[in-house]
């Protein structure tokens, strides 16, 4: 069907557009970064597809992103010779939000512009940010390899709907024309555009070109010449030497690869030599994405082979518990025609994954152990955002278990607040001289943990206990039985043996009490029948008359509750 059709945006798109236009206006220049980022991705995609099918190049393999403007028409155009889009792709990509985490995002919106603006940033602004500065956007595109009559024209005023029709388009790729709103005339200037490009898009690998300008004496203004001028550095940022890259450039590159709007929390950049050679540039975002708990979400580390883009979210490059890491790995050894299937078996990939994992854990370790207050603060922020994901690593990554254990942070009876700030090393540093074990309690909520009757004897003796109330904590402690030679034990399990913390007098007292109350405990045991294995006198309690304990080798009471809730 070639005739013009009018289609409605998905409801969420309409909402997003409204929000974006109102809350991101003060940041309006970012639309250009988003459109250039998409153009660059489209070139990368074509380069990759053409590895298997060179005909897709249609004789032109020099990628370019062109920015031009028309002062009279008040339009700004961003064009690329990347992979382009088919009609169906246009309808999906520019009419819906096809992203995991969308529902969560919309459920978090508050209606408060300031708060929502930062949420949109977190969610990703993308193509729709065009409507911050434009009141009409026209897209012409044709997919690489398709017939010239398979061009698509999409147009919208960013309100409720868009039109779509088939057109002739001899050249492949995408051209996006923004019809600027009133008051955006300052964007119709080479000088202004170049400065925006250099600020946000300098790291883009493809050349971003504009027509040169010269002074016209008659018109008394700058006029365009026929010559192209490349505005950005147009080289792979990660291949440059660290000393030649500013923090600003690292941050802008992150926004492109991470599809993020905010600065990253931290990053690491290194060239690894030896048996396998590769460059890694890995970032930890400042905030968790909306789809972090969706195990099918994009992974975020891109794979390049000798600077040629190979694939997005190469899941083999990072273990699942580090799925929040963004960035690139550029391998010197892999073949260009590497496929996902090959990656699964590749020894090179295995050693790259091990190397990247170590690198990320090392980066977190140095943040956590830094003497610098700002760095330490960063680690606290990291823990707040990603701590729960990192905990998964305790069961997933046996080889790095000790490293991960050292990165864990807990609440404890020392501060008695829910803030997770205590490391196992801190805990050990504060242990009583005669204390041999690390004690913890697990419960459904922080308050339940904090008020657990099992803690009474520990509070009385001034022994710190780690307070666990996260669902994954049960799982963590099932894998973390020991840290630096100290056993981790639940205060709610078994016949609690406090070892040297217990004095002889207390033991004697308990024994005699057991005799004294024999009749009572037997009576209770009888009336509880099957429901209790054993009833005994304890010295654990100081205020409460009784408490439940699990047998040493049984699942804990809290885990039993979790399993029951899960229907097992
Ligand atoms: P994101 O880049 O995070 O995927 P965007 O909103 O920026 O989100 O873009 C949505 C989708 O539209 C892209 O994933 C891509 O498939 C498509 N797209 C956007 N711009 C282009 C382009 N210049 N060429 C080809 N496809 C594009
Ligand atoms: Mg994008």
UniProtKB/TrEMBL annotation:
Subcellular location: Cytoplasm
Entry keywords, A to Z: ATP-binding, Chaperone, Cytoplasm, Nucleotide-binding, Stress response
Gene3D superfamilies: 3.30.230.80, 3.40.50.11260, Heat shock protein 90, C-terminal domain (1.20.120.790), Histidine kinase-like ATPase, C-terminal domain (3.30.565.10)
GO MF terms held by the record: ATP binding; ATP hydrolysis activity; ATP-dependent protein folding chaperone; unfolded protein binding
Region spans: A: 1-340
Residues at which ATP binds: 34, 38, 80, 85, 93, 99-101, 122-127, 174, 340
Main localization category: cytoplasm
Histidine kinase/HSP90-like ATPase domain residues: 27-184
A Gene Ontology cellular-component term: cytoplasm
InterPro entries: HATPase_C_sf (IPR036890), HATPase_dom (IPR003594), Heat_shock_protein_90_CS (IPR019805), HSP90_C (IPR037196), Hsp90_fam (IPR001404), Hsp90_N (IPR020575), Ribosomal_Su5_D2-typ_SF (IPR020568)
UniProt xrefs under SUPFAM superfamilies: ATPase domain of HSP90 chaperone/DNA topoisomerase II/histidine kinase, HSP90 C-terminal domain, Ribosomal protein S5 domain 2-like
Entry function: Molecular chaperone. Has ATPase activity.
NCBIfam families: PRK05218.1 (NF003555)
Family: Belongs to the heat shock protein 90 family.
Assembly: Homodimer.
HAMAP family, per the entry: HSP90
Protein name, as recorded: Chaperone protein HtpG
